Amino acid sequence: MARMVAHAPEELTDGRLHRLGEGIGKVVYASEHWVVKRERSPTEVVALILLWKMLRRWAHKIPFGWGDRLMRRPSRLIRFLRIATQAGMAVIPKSIWYSKHVSQVLRTYVSRDRRGEKLARTHLTGSTLVPEIITFPPETVLVGGWPGWLTIREATERVEATLDKKIEALATEGDFAGVELWLNRFLDTRLAGWQRGLFSVDAHLKNFGVVGQRVVLLDTGGLTDRWTDIAERLSKDEQVAEPHAQLGLAGVLAEQPHVASRFNERWKSMVNRDAVGDILGAECTPDE
Ligand SMILES: Nc1ncnc2c1ncn2[C@@H]1O[C@H](COP(=O)(O)OP(=O)(O)O)[C@@H](O)[C@H]1O
Ligand SMILES: [Mg+2]
Q1: pTM of the entire structure?
Q2: Rounded to the nearest whole angstrom, what is the distance from the C-alpha of residue 152 to the centroid of ligand 1?
Q3: Which of 41, 87, 95, 178 has its CA at 20 to 30 Å from residue 279's CA atom?
Q4: Where are the beta strands (DSSP E) in 144-285?
Q5: Looking at ligand 1, which residue's alpha carbon is closest to its atom 18?
Q6: What is the distance between the terminal CA atoms of the chain, rounded to a whole angstrom?
Q7: With a 6 A CB cut-off, is 49 part of the ligand 1 pocket?
Q8: Which pLDDT belongs to residue 72?
Q9: Exposure string (b/e) for 202-225, b if CB count within 10 Å is 16 or more?
């Protein structure tokens, strides 16, 4: 269970919280030590997913390399998608939003998110693999941007940085030993999760964060204990020739082929059906 406290930390109620990050499903606001999450409305989530899929398919056709640039900058991409979505939702007919395909997409997304959150709460609470969560009686806080306020019942420990940012910063300083160390810690955290019977199918660097010496999982939405889902993800991962590039590190490691190839070697030896299957073994829900 998350730690229960008598009331929300003062720093959350003191002033207006700024927007720290956002994903497909949530917008995250922060005070100095805590973050709180606003869940997007179902239409917003669907619109973002559909646009994301469309963009992924067509990015390379957008002139001046804008599309490719966008695909390499996840934060900018999601901001762009949100703005495009808000415009799009006003002009796209309701019948499309309520079509069978769209509701299927949404159902998959929501059930994944709920399942992952539940698995994290039962298997990872109190472990070093996730940031701490506290719960308290409902409280309304002020947030930047629309809609200006938010009712919260819980808060999550704010991490120093997301893993993508941490690695970018180290690379900018020229500290590639540090880059390699944190990439290894990333794999260590994934391994520790598998040893508890849990696998994230959404393991990109923005979904992990840095606390002290360790890497923690920020986004529990991709967590699963079902071998069918895991094997599907891994069979795709096994096709990846350069995992570091897949993780968006092609630029960061352009001048560091040895760091890249050591990471890719270790990643390939771990992230495949044989290796993960051996670890998950009996922990996992077998195929139905
Ligand atoms: N505890 C945290 N500390 C700092 N930043 C966070 C934290 N949790 C989430 N974030 C930021 O917010 C973004 C979106 O949160 P996430 O839980 O991944 O939502 P989604 O399910 O929409 O992907 C993350 O990618 C990260 O940048
Ligand atoms: Mg996320």
Answers
A1: 0.88
A2: 16
A3: 178
A4: 149-157, 161-162, 199-200, 208-211, 214-217, 223-224
A5: 219
A6: 30
A7: no
A8: 77
A9: bbbbbbbbbbeeebbbbbbbbbbb
